Amino acid sequence: MEQAPRVSLRRATRADFDTIRRWLSRPDIQDWWGPVSATEAEVNMALSSEHGICRMIEVDGVPVGYAHAVDATLWGDSLPDDLEPGTWDLDLFVADEAHRGKGVGQVALAALREEVFATTLAVAVCVFPSVKNERAVRAYEKAGFRWQRVWDDPGVGLSWFMVSRRDDPR
């Protein structure tokens, strides 16, 4: 019987940026997360912010992806007008193909969501997957995120605005 991989999140630091940047330059990650210039800027802002939770996703101690959560107000006016104050934006990707489709992203997403609710006064967390990325939308649905509406994201185009509230049952 194969043992399930041990997924953990560890604090991402500036020392991890070269690895994250290399991952962001890959076409498969850009399909999931968006254009490299925008995502590099996003990661830099998250790493520099005291209102950000930046994590390396590890499997059995080996980095396989990246995740962050930021107070959505960090993004300024480029978010939907109906975004509830106190909402944090979550983003993550699993870069190592060998660990995709095996629940690593689900475990990391759940851990990040729980960390946000345990360490902040966030009322909700949100995600903005591209309408073209059905795999991401389904993963977020499984994690308890609910569709609010389609939103025209200035960086990646039409996206689902999906939310999971603090008091939502999972």
From TrEMBL:
One of its GO terms (biological process) is response to antibiotic. InterPro entries: Acyl_CoA_acyltransferase, GNAT_dom. One of its GO terms (molecular function) is N-acyltransferase activity. Gene3D superfamilies: 3.40.630.30. Residues 7-167 form the N-acetyltransferase domain. Keywords: Antibiotic resistance, Nucleotidyltransferase, Transferase. The keyword RNA-binding does not apply. PANTHER family: LYSINE N-ACYLTRANSFERASE C17G9.06C-RELATED. This is Aminoglycoside 6-adenylyltransferase.
